[in-house]
Amino acid sequence: MLAKPIVRWLLPFVVVGGSYAGYAAIAATAPEKESTKETITEPTVRASSLFPTDHKVVITSHGELVPFEKTHLSAQVSGEVISWHPNFVTGGIVKRGEVLFTIESDNYEAAVLQAEAGLASARASLIEEQAKAEVAKRQAKKLSDKQVTDLYLRKPQVLSAQAQVKSAQAALKRANRGLEDCR
């Protein structure tokens, strides 16, 4: 019975002693560590004075150039271009309001003359219809009210002649605008 308590107390010392002996054996057979020297990793610095200079940077690259702004240009009238602005070239600068093209205006000048003639003819027709209406009005005084109609007094013809004058004025305005757009 006495042997059991001695074994209980002795067993931990035997385990600790055996562990130490194993460690000592491993440490004795292990290869030696190589000694490492500390290396200095400080950068070397060289100071120099700076002076401003012009330097042209050349970059070689591939890609597609896209303009910042695009402009669509078209004439409001058709015809032969007889002159254009000297700066109207690729990359040229043209100020707002400057004439870019001049288009041959002979046809548009003729259109203005035709429109003026049409307006004069329409005004003459209106004067004629107004005179006929005045004659019809004087003759209507001799007739009874039942026989006198708007058609007899030539009111529709006068309205038609007035409309023709307005139409001729609009045609003249269009022709003048076409002539102005040539410049």
Uncertain residue ranges: none
Main β-sheet description: 2 strands, antiparallel
Q: How big is the Rg?
A: 55 Å
Got a strand count? 2
Mean pLDDT metric: 85
Share of helical residues: 40-55%
Mass-distribution shape: elongated
N- to C-terminal distance: 133 Å
Strand order of the largest sheet: 1-2
| Tally of individual helices | 3
Helix-strand topology string: HEEHH
Strand content: under 5%
Q: Helix/strand/pairing class, anyone?
A: mainly alpha
If you had to describe this structure to a student in words, what would you say it looks like?
By secondary structure, the chain is mainly alpha-helical. Helices cover 48% and strands 4% of the residues. It is built from three helices and two strands; from the N terminus they run H-E-E-H-H. It has a two-stranded antiparallel sheet with strand order 1-2. Helix 2 packs antiparallel against helix 3. It starts with a helix and ends with a helix. The relative contact order is 0.10. The mean pLDDT is 85.
